[in-house]
Amino acid sequence: MVNVFIPCCMDLFVPTAAKATISVLEKLGDECYYNEDQTCCGRQFFLRGDYDTASRLAYNLTMFFDNERNIVVPSAACAGYIKNYYTPMIETQVFPKAMKHVIQKTFELCDYIVNEKQVTELGNSFPHKVFYYESCAARNLYRCGEEAQTLLRNTKGLELLTEPTMHLCCSANGDFAMHNHEMSEFLLKKIVDTIVATGAEYVTCADLHCLQYIDAYVQSQDIDLEVIPLPCILDATETMNEEEK
Questions:
Q1: Which of 81, 162, 228, 245 has the highest local Cβ count within 10 Å?
Q2: Which domain does 48 fall in, by range?
Q3: What is the pTM assigned to this prediction?
């Protein structure tokens, strides 16, 4: 059995991605435990300087998942935040054993599939041109490897498109976009222009909040590009693709 922690933005705005996450894990033989009382990991409060609220939420999550099971998170940002910032915030509030377990046993979804389950092919199918956008959190906070790209490359019919030199932040984190609108739109334009130039039909990412922000720009500019959460691709089947047609 594994714990599944669903990020706030996924729970609120794209619950289908949360269901896809659980579906993928169950296909791998994992029984999933989802605590309905779980709260936000606290990352957004931390980014805005509300450390008291962030600390309380970190404590709550640690207590929810103090059960010796792996914790799988379909978000590099939330998983990376838990692993890197929980210790200094809650080390005086919880038993060291509980804190150590949560920090060591938290895994981003693709990292868990490839490195913990030792699976690189899921038997999924998504016959489209898909651009993988590497978020800042995936690259710098959680420090993902090639796990997501490996699973996408091994998706039936999928043509994976990337741009390894594009290390641009979409500016979705924190208040940057709110207080630096012109720079935020400049960054988004460069990112989306690069993606569109590859001929991509879809863009996916290890962080849903980045996809939501890119999607807002795409829709505002009436650009022919769709966003799709990574778990939805990993759970896609040929039957589902036929139904889409």
A1: 81
A2: 2-116
A3: 0.93
